[in-house]
Amino acid sequence: KKAPSQSLEDSKAKLLARLPSPDKPWMEQYAILLRPSTSNKAGTLIGLLCIPRVSSDGEIPELGYGIHSDYWGHGYASEAIALFISFYWAEERKNSKDSFEAYTGLNNLASERVLIKAGFRRCEVLKGGHEVVDVNSGEKQMEDVTCWTLERPRK
């Protein structure tokens, strides 16, 4: 599990770093919430879905997502990805692209199933070829990952 932010200021700084800007117009981030209930009127934040970066040529956005471990295995990631992809390609957007990439750790079979269910295809294994940034420490490291791709459906 990743450690939660230690302060409101820390949380704000992390969120602001993930907003679109002139140098990152493609940046998008969405909260994954459980519906509000009578006991929890605001809903429960259970994860995030984002476009944290694009390919070096600027043509392929990377889809990133994470669900708190207490909520794994309930289909929330699959539902969030399906909704996001349909929203992304239904909207007229200045920077819309025709495909997505996503990456999974080599042993993350649950995440692989989520991507397959969403229509992604396995591309290749990248040995030490994907930069992963720890959201709490900001520390960067290179990891072995499986690359996945999803093409926009043709009409």
Automatic annotation (TrEMBL):
Domain named N-acetyltransferase: residues: 1-143
Molecular function (Gene Ontology), one example: acyltransferase activity, transferring groups other than amino-acyl groups
Positions in coiled-coil regions: none
PROSITE patterns named among the record's database cross-references: GNAT
Matches recorded under Gene3D superfamilies: 3.40.630.30
Superkingdom in the source lineage: Eukaryota
Pfam families: Acetyltransf_3 (PF13302)
Cited SUPFAM superfamilies: Acyl-CoA N-acyltransferases (Nat)
Identification of the protein by name: N-acetyltransferase domain-containing protein
